[in-house]
């Protein structure tokens, strides 16, 4: 389940005192600032730009493009879960402290495609839980 990022905020998340999760991006932060802070903290981060995305197919297409999913991505919910639970395609060749996905314009997508957004968020929750106890957790920020 999503909720606000607990105080003290993003720095605590990136340096390990706040657990990984699916959180709302604090209104005082911007995706660009988050990406910069994540890079400084040795996190692999990427924006998922959802502007104009109004259905499942467009969401999955945007995931493939923005997150540079591997060729085997099947553009369905199971394939999304598979990609987020096997991040080897994203972490190739580098040791990172964590992975951060920023879903930009999430509210607009959620309003346009509520069922698809619920399913996507459930997959985000499962993937975050899967990676939570690893050396390199996954966090999703909904912006």
UniProtKB/TrEMBL annotation:
SUPFAM superfamilies xrefs: Barstar-related
Domain Barstar (barnase inhibitor) span(s) in chain numbering: 45-142
CDD domains per record: Barstar_evA4336-like (cd05141)
InterPro entries (alphabetical): Barstar, Barstar-like_sf
Pfam families: Barstar
Family, as annotated: Belongs to the barstar family.
Protein name: Barstar (barnase inhibitor) domain-containing protein
Organism in which the protein naturally occurs: Streptomyces netropsis
């Amino acid at each position: 389940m999503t909720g606000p990022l607990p105080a003290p905020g993003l720095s605590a998340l990136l340096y390990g005192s706040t657990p990984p999760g699916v959180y709302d991006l604090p209104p005082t932060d911007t995706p660009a600032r988050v990406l910069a802070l994540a890079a400084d903290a040795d996190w692999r981060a990427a924006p998922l730009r959802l502007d104009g995305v109004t259905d499942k197919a467009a969401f999955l297409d945007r995931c493939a493009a923005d997150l540079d999913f591997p060729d085997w991505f099947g553009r369905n919910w199971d394939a999304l879960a598979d990609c987020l639970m096997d991040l080897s395609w994203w972490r190739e060749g580098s040791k990172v402290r964590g992975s951060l996905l920023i879903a930009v314009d999430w509210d607009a997508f959620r309003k346009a495609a509520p069922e698809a957004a619920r399913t996507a968020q459930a997959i985000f929750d499962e993937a975050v839980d899967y990676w939570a106890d690893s050396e390199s957790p996954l966090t999703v920020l909904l912006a």
